Amino acid sequence: MLMSDLHLEFDNVIPPEFSVVAPVLILAGDIGRPDVPSLQTFLLTLCQRFEHIFFCGWKPLFLPSVRILGTTLWTHVTRESASRIGRCLNDYSLISIRVETKDGKSTRKRRITVDDTNEWHTQQLVWLREEIEKARNNGEHVVIITHHAPCRHDTCSTEDEESDLMDAFVNDHDTDCVDPVRLWVYGHTHWSTDLIMNSTRIVSNQCGYAHENCGFRPNMKITLYDDRPIDVIDSVHCDS
């Protein structure tokens, strides 16, 4: 099963009701904040219902013959878009990191910049490609879980696709959507999709904000070796 962008960081959000139709749950995109109790409560409840829960984390996990790779995959923001994105996106005003002072004797806190996220994008992409190559050599299939979308085509709304801000939401990694990458799931764009790029199935099942209709299906079941999902629609959309 797959869910993303539940946005449990908001007090008025109630997690979606759903039936457990698979033993594994993947959570991608904006689920909640670790400093807000609702996320921990939600995850503990899920642990009682699923055999495995995969949350986006920068390390490989393994099921029989399958390598599961999770990372944020920050986007590469072009020079032309950098100034506007740095001003307009909450990430660059709300997220801070600690860096060493010039003398190297202490650290100071500062907000992240586009240069930071571009560097993280490069690091994470290198790691992904190294792990994909390991899987290829071992004869394993690959499932990738990222926060940001791997490609532009049909991973966001038509209106958003034309925005110069989309450099901060989607990547241009169509050429990485090949064997042995069987499935790539993502979130963040508030646009649910299910498509085939080259030989890789790209899926997102996003709840989004209460006023949005993102195409969320609470009981979406994905079978790794099928072409299409099996859906059991007997539950409700996210409430607020």
Description:
The protein is of the alpha/beta class. It has one domain (2-231). The protein has 5 helices and 13 strands. It has helices at residues 37-47, 79-88, 91-94, 114-138, 158-161, and strands at residues 2-4, 24-28, 52-55, 59-63, 66-71, 96-100, 107-111, 141-146, 181-185, 193-197, 200-204, 220-221, 230-231. The strands form 4 sheets. Strands 4-5-8-9-11-10 form a 6-stranded mixed beta sheet, with helices on one face. 32% of the residues are buried.
Strand element count = 13
Counting copies of identical and different chains, the oligomeric state is single chain
Question: How many whole angstroms does the radius of gyration measure?
Answer: 18 Å
Task: Give the total of domains.
Answer: 1
Q: Tell me about the biggest sheet?
A: 6 strands, mixed
Count of DSSP helices?
A: 5
Please identify the structural class as seen in this structure: alpha/beta
Q: Percent helix among the residues?
A: 10-25%
Mean pLDDT reading: 89
**What ranges have pLDDT less than 50 throughout 5 or more consecutive residues?**
227-240
> What's the helix-strand series?
EEHEEEHHEEHEHEEEEE
